[in-house]
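Schema walk-through. Below, the input block comes first and the output block second. Nothing else is stored per chain. Lengths vary across the set, and this one has 116 residues.
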Amino acid sequence: MLEMTREEFEELVAEALDRIPPELTRLMDNVAVFVEDEPSAEDPELLGLYEGTPLTDRGEWYAGVLPDRITVYRGPTLRMSETREDVVQETEVTVVHEIAHHFGIDDDRLHALGYG
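--- output ---
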């Protein structure tokens, strides 16, 4: 398995977030991004997870709720990567994938766009 400290991985996630176009980041609302070492035991190879209410599903009722949560998992990403460049690429794909869920884009559409 490729070695990378948690701090290095967090920096890669931050850099991937920085590459999201500003016109999209301005539209993001009530969402926080986290890095965790491992996902739950039920899905040990999960690279990222979006938990919350997509922007497309929010209505007048949406107020006073906790932020949506995007989590990027370090362990599975490192296990599937052979080089640092692989980690950079996979981290960027994962970040875009989970942000797309925040915008209401489903997995089928993301796979069709190459963000599977």
